[in-house]
Amino acid sequence: MSNVTLTIDGQTVSVPAGTTILQAAQSIGAEIPAICYHEACTPNALCRNCVVEVEGARVLVASCVAQVAANMVVYTRSPRVERSRRTILEMLASAVDLSEAPDIQRMMQEYSADAQRFPQAERREIPLIDDNPMYVRDYSKCILCWRCVQVCADDAQFTFAINFSGRGYETTIGTFFGKPMPATTCVFCGQCVGVCPTGALKPKSEWLLEQGLSIDQVFAATRQERTGAEKRTRTWRRA
Amino acid sequence: MIEADRVVATICPYCGVGCNLQLHLKNDYIYKVTAPFESVVNHGNLCVKGRFGYDFIYHPRRVTTPLIRKTPQQPGSRTQAFDLDEWRVVSWDEALDYTADRLVEIYHRDGADAMAVYLCAKATNEDNYLLQKLFRALFRTNNVDHCTRLCHAGSVVALQQAIGSSAMSNTAAEVIQNDVFIVTGSNTTENHPIIALQMKAAVEKHGAKMIVVDPRRLELVDFAELWLPLKPGTNVPLFTAMAHVIIEEGLVNEKFVAERTEGYAEFVRSVEEFTPEYAEAVCGVDRELIRRAARLYATAERAAIYWGMGISQLSHGTASALSLIHLAFLTGHIGREGTGLNPLRGQNNVQGASDMGAMPFHYPGYMRVDNPENAAKWERAWNVEPGGLNRKLGLTTTEILSHAHPGGVRALYIMGENPMMSEPNLNLTRHHMQQLEFIAAQDLFINESGAFADVFLPAVSWAEKDGTFTNTDRRVQRVRQALPPRGQARPDWQIIRDLAQRIEARLGRSQSAGWQYTHPSEILAEVGRVAPEYAGVTYERLEQQGLQTPVWDARHPGTPYLFSEGFPRGRGKFHPLEFVPAVELPDDEYPFILTTGRVLEHWHGGTLTRHSHLDDLFPEAQAQINPVDAEMLGIRDGLPVRVASRRGQIVLRAAVSEKTSAGVVFIPFHFAEAAANLLTIDALDPQAKIPEFKACAVQVFPAREEELAKPEIRMERGRY
User: Fold this and answer.
1) What is the domain count for chain B?
2) B307 and B206, same structural domain?
3) What is the 3-state secondary structure (H, E, C) of B262-312?
4) pLDDT in tens, B326-372
5) What is the pLDDT of residues B187-246, one digit of tens each?
6) Is residue B11 one of the residues assigned to a domain?
7) Does the distance separating the beta carbons of A230 and B204 come in below 8 Å?
8) Domain total of chain A
9) A154 and chain B in contact, CB less than 8 A
10) The domain containing residue B360 runs over which residues?
């Protein structure tokens, strides 16, 4: 495959055609901050935090999906880029609980983002869903990066148990018809938990430990002991 | 948000894929498990067991003190003791002295043939090496086997006969380089979940075509180009008919056959009768499907075969595997990247345990015990007088129990196995267990087999010890201790070392076989000094990444795929085959074929997973029945059924679905309260001695709710 030469932040770079701007920048050590992007997932340019300025382009370009072109001139930290990233982070912080998203918090510091910039914003407060023995879903922490949906689909598992549901502000990640997880095609591989960047998805044992339970209590809570005398019907209710 | 005290890199203890793990610990509790995305094995992916299935470590019923039975057990009338009240808590010294006394007493009285041991494909290479060394060097017996006998023995024997080696020839990740691949007798989605992901990606993203040959409509069928739903136990006619088509249509790789194989002319004559029409009649698969599958496989640039227990767990398991090997020989689809023959090994360390000589026919490194040169090598390594090691082939797993009678096997040491769940025809197994004079169990829980023991030695889980596992693609990987042993439990290698020292002292041997180990790395180094495949495998090298055996010396990089130059036996050997049907065929009285297997959420006899919240996700046994049969029997989904064979019967709920073909009932064997192996037949493959788990005749009737062992449990799940 032929190489393409371009300029990133004043440096000349030569990379194979088809490389994304993000990868090209990484190759010269220019770190572009990205939230929804994950090396194991197909990039979708959803969070827009990886935008860069390309000379001649009308709008900022999402570097996770945009491929390099010959003689492209890219700025990864121009004032326009910085303002855009800062605003995105401030809007995220206005509505979503980012307390367990250390990477995003670091970015907010780096870009001097003000978490209180939009005090009137309505916060996304969604009850935690505890509908299975393996993991909990706390969508108050969800930034809709889509990584979980992708690994559940054809980026890893080919199980297709979850997807976006709702529109606009009401958008959440959910199961089809809002079924409890055990009633879906979910195989509880936890690929989704593995790529969640904000702690919206976490193992139930971790969540219970956070609630202050001892290890023995966690054990008892995650596993209903079955004895001969105990009567129990296994039905899963929506939380 | 919890800050981990430490994150420990290790290897998953469940299946043979060997996924890399990171255990996140807080106060010695594994609260989270992640997988490194840069891992060549699993690329950040895990399955439900690998990610969530470790709470058994902390289970209150786990035994963490040595125990001795209160009531002395007599051969012929042994009983099971699940309740701790029936056991006396003792010190390690008392437990080990007692075990050594009893074993030595029986050895002195009845000799080497009275001694037997089950090793463990869950335990590390080091644990297995040490225990077979104990029984071979001290008790001079080759009655050493493990559960490979129950899973891939047919494949191992076939590969040894035809090729001279018995492992996957490829790296699992090579599946994306296949143009065509056959998956047969393997529900890869549930039993090797991470390899199944790579298979699906191969089809969906890399343009490969998959052929599924299986009596069940597995999830993989959704991704397959062709599905050949054969009747259980008819592999030989089906694959030999494919060979027939390949020869008839001139699709043979003549150059490969001429240069790399032998016995071709005779083989060609033997396949004449195996026409697709004949196969259709026997296997129930459309002749055109057989032809298309043969053409697709033979004309591919790069093709491979992946198989599981559906091939090997038959009374003709060896012949089944040979019928697959022939396809690779005819087409030359072996010895190049993206081509090959791949038995998917079940347990995390079944490859390693086999490599370590946990078999009655081989020392570590597959050196035959009846070859005097091999024996001499190990006599030198273990300071045994020349001629001291037993040259006689030992008994296999199933034979050990069937020889449990006066004059036969008297003492059985069980490390981590559960024959009372995993052997065929459990009523007979129970009878055999009762006949033993002494049983020692080394495990985490008192399972159905440990309950028969005289002494219980509490071992640790994989997270509480150091060692190595060798996965299905021959990759030796480092298992690291993440937390201290619970209670007084001890690492297996330490238990065996301390026991061996006591036994050796009692036997009064003039020279010690060497039991002064302070770390498992010293044990692996000892293996490498004699077994050439492990010569270059050292703990230092394993720190960074696993090594694929054979690793011939300290600088050898390992071997991603085998047989590029030649086969270990020289030329690949064709073996003309005959079709031998399953021993017990359906008839008017027992009209259904029972086939057994596993489900995603559980592991084998259930010692671990049924002590985990995995059991909450999949709490009950189910009999999968095709809707056509269900209609005929008046059975609806979720209703109880009685399934009976000539050997036993169980009651469990029916799962009516097209996942199984008409005439075939599928039952997983994890559930003690409805143990599928009460029904299975103890017929063995004559060469490999593997039982016929995959086909026996049963009858099915509606049953009453109250006949269920646990009628209060009713699982509702949406997964396929």
Assistant:
1) 4
2) yes
3) ECHHHHHHHHCCCCHHHHHHHHCCCHHHHHHHHHHHHHCCCEEEEECHHHH
4) 999 999 999 998 999 999 999 999 999 999 999 999 999 999 999 99
5) 999 999 999 999 999 999 999 999 999 999 999 999 999 999 999 999 999 999 999 999
6) yes
7) no
8) 2
9) yes
10) 67-148+349-548
